[in-house]
Specification:
The chain has 310 residues and is an all-alpha fold. It has a single domain, classed as ABC transporter involved in vitamin B12 uptake, BtuC, CATH 1.10.3470. 73% of the residues lie in helices and 1% in strands. A hairpin with a 2-residue loop joins strand 1 and strand 2. Helix 3 packs across helix 12 and helix 12 packs across helix 14. The longest helix has 27 residues. It is globular, with a radius of gyration of 20 Å. Part of the ABC transporter complex LsrABCD involved in autoinducer 2 (AI-2) import. Probably responsible for the translocation of the substrate across the membrane. One of its GO terms (cellular component) is plasma membrane.
Length: 310
């Protein structure tokens, strides 16, 4: 069974079981909340999936999102026109992504090490900038993507879905995305095919920064305040979603559809715990168990395939 079909089955089964215990779970309001919570981080999930498929890991997306969201909110408070605020968020995400990419290829370091360092640099910058206080009193226009509704869902949800569809089309049509898979599968062999490993690494990290900038606007537009710890642990949630979705952690294999469904499954798990009356402190434990089982299953399946090929 393809991973995507299994994930759909798992999501539907989980929803039905929880609804059997608490009949409010499958109400329109609950489903709408789950979709909204899951959608605003879709750009980050997509960007993280591409980074991991390329054989790298980006640990800085949560901090990049925080820098983008908080600096954008302060610009909005200062009276800067909202379209420019949005462009600022995207630009900051793009720029910080290029910093990650440049440091990685310039010093020939694993992206995980570079982004781990930058995660702490940007998080420290945010704490220094805000002194630990939340950003409040943002203007009403700040909630444009959150308040504007189309068919009962906020504009932020539709924007995220459009981005997801466009990326799923591009990954099938553009050679660059095929290069991402090739580099993740065998970095040594791609050099003989004329594919630049460094360029692929640079651009996937840059793209992930841009995606974090987009998610910053979409996620923060739901509130009239921005907490100083916004985006904390987002990178771990994104990696977990991608791995559960079938993207091989060592690169070269996986799909955006699977990564997206993995994110939806974990979001559904979090909401299920609330309706089952289970303390939220168990949320990470359940997610960790799902990730462990997923990785073990993938390892067993991959080992079986290799034995059959031999």
């Amino acid at each position: 069974m393809k991973r995507e079909y299994f994930l759909i089955f798992a999501i539907v089964t989980l929803a039905c079981v929880v609804n059997f215990i608490n009949s409010n779970f499958l109400s329109f309001r609950t489903i709408k909340t789950i979709i909204e919570n899951f959608a605003v981080y879709l750009p980050v999930i997509i960007g993280t999936a591409l980074v991991i498929i390329s054989g790298q890991i980006d640990l800085s997306v949560g901090s990049i999102l925080a820098v983008s969201a908080i600096t954008s909110a302060q610009l909005a408070r200062a009276g800067i026109p909202y379209p420019l605020v949005v462009l600022w968020s995207l630009g900051i995400g793009f720029f910080l992504g290029t910093v990650n990419g440049w440091l990685t290829i310039k010093f020939k370091l694993p992206a995980m090490i570079v982004t781990l360092a930058m995660m702490n640099v940007w998080r420290g910058f945010i704490l220094w900038w805000t002194k630990g206080y939340w950003i409040t009193d943002v203007p009403t226009v700040w909630r444009f993507f959150g308040d504007t509704k189309i068919l009962e869902f906020p504009l932020s949800t539709w924007v995220a879905f459009v981005i997801a569809v466009v990326m799923m089309i591009l990954i099938r049509k553009k050679a660059f995305f095929r290069y991402i898979y090739a580099v993740g599968s065998n970095r040594s062999a791609t050099q003989f095919w004329g594919i630049s490993n460094t360029k692929v690494t640079f651009w996937v990290l840059t793209l992930n920064g841009l995606m974090a900038g987009i998610s910053a606007i979409l996620s923060a537009s739901r509130y009239f305040f921005i907490p100083s710890n916004i985006g904390t642990n987002l990178e771990l949630t994104a990696i977990a979603s991608v791995v559960v979705g079938g993207v091989r952690i060592t690169g070269g294999r996986g799909s955006l559809e699977g990564a997206i469904l993995g994110s939806l499954l974990l979001t559904t798990v979090s909401s299920s715990l609330v309706f089952l009356g289970i303390d939220a402190i168990w949320d990470d434990a359940f997610k960790g168990l799902i990730i462990l089982l997923t990785v073990l299953a993938d390892s067993l399946i991959f080992s079986k395939i290799r034995r059959e090929e031999m």
